Amino acid sequence: MNSKNKEALWKQILDRVTLTEDDQALFAGQELLPVTVTTARPLDAEEATLLEKLLMEKFRKPVQIQQQKVDPKVVGGVLVQYGDHVFDATMQRQLEKMDALMKAIHLQDQDLEKPGNMTEALSQGVKNFQNQVDLEEIGVVEKVGDGICTASGLGGAMSGELVALHDGVYGMVQNLRENEVGIVLLGGATEIKEGDMVRRTGEIMEIPVGEEMLGRIVNPLGQPLDGKGAIKTQAKYPIEHQAPGIAARQPVDVPLQTGLKAVDALVPIGRGQRELIIGDRGTGKTAIAVDTILNQKGKGVICIYVAIGQKASSVARLAHTFEEYGAADYTMIVAATAADTAPLQYLAPYAGAAVGEYFMDQGKDVLIVYDDLSKHAVAYRAMSLLLRRPPGREAYPGDVFYLHSRLLERACRRNARHGGGSMTALPIIETQAGDVSGYIPTNVISITDGQIYLETDLFNSGVRPALNSGLSVSRVGGAAQTKAMKSVAGTLRLALAQYRELAAFAQFGSDLDKETRAQLDRGARVTEILKQGQYQPLSMAQEVISLYAVNNGFVDNVPVADVTRYAYEMLTYLDNHCSIILTSLEKEQKLTDDIRQQLDDALDDFGKLFAPGGAQA
Q1: 209: helix, coil or strand?
Q2: Which are the contacts of 538, defined by CB distance < 8 A and separation ≥ 6?
Q3: Which of the following is catalytic: 16, 406, 475, 596?
Q4: pLDDT tens digits, residue range 240-254?
Q5: Partners of 37 in the β-ladder
Q6: What is the pTM for the complete model shown?
Q7: What is the 3-state secondary structure (H, E, C) of 135-179?
Q8: In angstroms, how far is the first alpha carbon of the chain from the final one?
Q9: 565 is annotated as an active-site residue
């Protein structure tokens, strides 16, 4: 190739390089720009001089090529590096951009099954392809392992920024140090090696959001895990987002019914509340959350279940349960299983919160379950130690309180001026041997608006849900209850507390006065009436009637062993013969004199029909 053709070729390559005023400011104060160039083949002396001349014209400053590198992977063109900034005019970079464009077309187009539509979409993409070369900030991978990499350069990177590595692998910046940044890799960790280039994107971590996510299982990046094809959404939300301010919130006073008598009566949950579910392993924490989701059917509440560090088989079983009970249409699952890396488990709850905020911004009510934040803290600890952050109390990084507070503060009930809508959070914490004074439990207890404490001894004795009425509390209280529920639940906590105390005392003596025996009998029946099987949530009216029956003596003559059967058969009887009572109660939301009279008559009639010790209807 003669000199004229060489000059024309290099000029054509560098014509695509564009400089902005900000780029020029980067070179200000430099008399001579020392650069490193990378090409697919070695440059001869004539080409090196020619390239220096063309770069000087482009940068309007004297340029000196201090180092030449040869990398056949770039295919053609040139990569010009100044410090940790590059102008990448290589063929490899153009192919990467074209590949990203084609993938974007595939995800966004809604009807690619027809060949004509595919051809048109590809033609339009090629037509709109911009091949100009902009200044990019880069870094170089120094160390990589366990889903974490450390890169030099990237001096302008922001915490939480998305960075691109090769072959479509992305990472998120976490550590910002003087000469290096710590990056958590979002998949593809085995494909990254030392010396690889890392590019800033200028974007923060986002997840696709939209109605299309409902009924699906996705990972924290929004990628489907259920084998049902790509999810085509129109919007994305940042995973990390500032919680709504005080002026945007309003008091929590709309009930979010769980369908569980014990919870709705003793520790009511309101829309926009954060209610912790806490207890040892195997005490039914997830069961309460799942029943609450199932009970939202037909109530206009969008549900999001975030599985953190669970077995993939457990997530699949849960998805099957949602489908079986008709909850899949309004529920989605964000899953980072035990097989996923610590960074993905760390991102999972924030990704779920981002999807919830999308629906809340539309004025809808959202219920989100974080199962569980104990594993989330462990994943964060692992990630932080790999990033060489200093360990804090009990080997947790010192900012673990901030980890959960910025997550749970995103749950709230907005006022009408800020769009309405709410996001109710049910975080789950697993304790060790009932120790609620541990670092993570005390952290989350201090952030939430109350806790549902599940006790191992109660669970093992057959009380399901195994709710400890003494340690469980809701800081919203009666504000999140209907008038009907308030009227029957008012004395329930006291009755249970007195029963537990008297029961512990009575086991040491046989002679009890009539009043004490009556309290014990009533307490035993209240405990039995609160028992409830899994996947059997009740309506508000059914809960109120059950508690009304036990409070007003209709169950006093029923043997304790038959109380659970009595409750089931009584509700079945009312549903079949006196459904007007249930309908009126749901409509009025309170026990009017008329409803009380009808209910008393119906319970009297059923009492005459109920056969203690008989087979379940």
Answers
A1: strand
A2: 259, 260, 261, 532, 546, 571
A3: 475
A4: 999 999 999 999 999
A5: 68, 80
A6: 0.88
A7: EEEEEEEEEEECCEEEEEECCCCCCCEEEECHHHCEEEEEEECCC
A8: 95
A9: no
